[in-house]
């Protein structure tokens, strides 16, 4: 007589009702794995950001993707002014609020996560914001971003948890969403501290550059406003020419150093109200060389660009400029951009030898010099950014 080798085996197959809990748990685990994988990918992207503006953009995008949130805002704490601020609020404009105001303020002051399934039932939520914007806030999830010692650096705030089909989910954010937000906030804190430090260093560098450049402009009886205007024109032109943003940022820093070499030119030549004689003009034409000497052998990227601009911003497209007689694309692009920006600001500004010209006259002069003095493509770009020019000029 044969015996069953597996006497405990049963031919019973579980019903779909019995399997449903296990399938639901399996799907939840798959979703969790998928979102953790996304969190790791986003962490790499966040770590790559070096400026606070780009980082905040990335953090807002990461919050929306990771939590399936309709909107998100990342606030940073401004202890000096007692405020929370954000340069990025997805779907809205830049925000600045009192540090104790609203849901974000509660998170900032207590350091605790807040999850609200129905915003309108919570007294801390200001419904006037929705009335002004036309947006309807249903659910809110807000978490603190803390540094190593536990000090709150900022607040992540997500609005309206969505379903996969894009509809607002009833019940709002769940405990897994909260865990993911806290994970994201933890990853972001180091990046935010680094970006804020980078911004402080950038501002210190910018301040130093403007002070050095102002020394030359002071001798030339010009003002720091000229430096800021021509740097902005250079920035906008470079962006119109579709240059990389990192390069544009460096150009804006470097542009004010274009005339640093004027420090070496005698005051009598710089400030002469009339036409320069041959000897004086020869001396004036040395200032690019002086600038190159002052800035030679730089190590910082901004100063490398500054040296190039100082040396070549008086070269002409047709090869008749100075000091080297370069022509066309032999002239570095940064110098060609600054040449147009600087000339435009000189034309529209009062100088010892002339009154300010109108916008129309200045643009006409640039157009007349296109292809001889200036790069035609950059003059064309100048014509295309007139709205931005007016905002700076007027």
Task: Describe the overall structure.
There is one protein chain. This protein is of the alpha+beta class and 394 residues long. Strands 3-2-1-6-5-4 form a 6-stranded antiparallel beta sheet, sandwiched between helices. It is 53% helix and 10% strand. The model has no long low-confidence stretch (mean pLDDT 84). The chain is elongated, with a radius of gyration of 30 Å. The longest helix has 45 residues. It has 2 domains: 178 residues, GAF domain (Beta-Lactamase, 2-Layer Sandwich); 174 residues, Hypothetical protein af1432 (Orthogonal Bundle). It starts with 15 loop residues before the first helix and ends with a helix. Strand 5 and strand 6 form a beta hairpin.
The number of helices is: 15
CATH class of the largest domain: Alpha Beta
- Rg over CA atoms, rounded to whole Å, is 30 Å
Helix content range of the residues, please?
40-55%
- Please describe the biggest sheet, giving its number of strands, its sense, and whether it closes into a barrel: 6 strands, antiparallel
Q: Estimate the global geometry from the Cα principal axes.
A: elongated
- Terminal CA distance reads 106 Å
Instruction: Report the strand count.
Output: 6
What does the oligomeric state look like here? single chain
CATH superfamily of the largest domain: GAF domain
Mean pLDDT over all positions: 84
H-E order: HHEEEHEHEEHHHHHHHHHHH
Q: How many separate domains make up the residues?
A: 2
């Amino acid at each position: 007589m044969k015996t069953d080798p597996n006497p405990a085996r049963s031919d019973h197959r579980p019903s779909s009702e019995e399997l449903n809990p296990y399938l639901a748990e399996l799907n939840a685990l798959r979703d969790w794995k998928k979102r953790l994988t996304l969190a790791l990918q986003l962490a790499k992207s966040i770590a790559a950001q070096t400026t606070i503006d780009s980082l905040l953009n990335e953090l807002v995008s990461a919050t929306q993707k990771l939590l399936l949130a309709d909107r998100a805002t990342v606030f940073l704490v401004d202890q000096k002014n007692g405020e929370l601020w954000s340069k990025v609020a997805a779907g809205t404009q830049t925000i600045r609020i009192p540090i104790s105001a609203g849901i974000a303020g509660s998170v900032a002051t207590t350091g605790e996560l807040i999850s609200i399934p129905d915003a309108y039932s919570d007294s801390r939520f200001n419904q006037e914001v929705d009335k002004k914007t036309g947006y309807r806030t249903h659910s809110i999830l807000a978490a603190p971003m803390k540094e190593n010692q536990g000090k709150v650096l900022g607040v992540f705030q997500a609005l309206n948890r969505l379903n996969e089909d894009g509809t607002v989910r009833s019940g709002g954010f769940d405990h897994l969403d909260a865990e993911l937000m806290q994970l994201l906030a933890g990853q972001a804190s180091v990046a935010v501290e680094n970006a804020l430090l980078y911004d402080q260093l950038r501002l210190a560098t910018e301040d130093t550059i403007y002070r050095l450049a102002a020394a030359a402009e002071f001798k030339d009886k010009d003002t720091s406003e000229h430096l800021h205007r021509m740097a902005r024109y250079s920035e906008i032109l470079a962006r119109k020419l579709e240059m990389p943003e990192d390069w544009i940022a460096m150009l804006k820093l470097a542009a004010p150093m274009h005339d640093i070499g004027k420090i070496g030119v005698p005051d009598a030549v710089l400030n002469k109200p009339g036409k320069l004689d041959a000897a004086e003009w020869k001396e004036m034409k040395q200032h690019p060389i002086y600038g190159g000497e002052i800035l030679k052998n730089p190590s910082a990227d901004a100063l490398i660009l500054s040296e190039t601009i100082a040396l070549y911003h008086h070269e002409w497209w047709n090869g008749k400029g100075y000091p080297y007689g370069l022509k066309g694309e032999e002239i570095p692009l940064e110098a060609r951009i600054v040449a147009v920006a600087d000339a435009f600001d000189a034309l529209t500004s009062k100088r010892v030898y002339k009154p300010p010209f109108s916008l129309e006259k200045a643009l006409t002069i640039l157009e007349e010099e296109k292809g001889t003095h200036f790069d035609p493509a950059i003059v064309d770009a100048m014509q295309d950014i007139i709205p931005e020019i007016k905002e700076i000029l007027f």
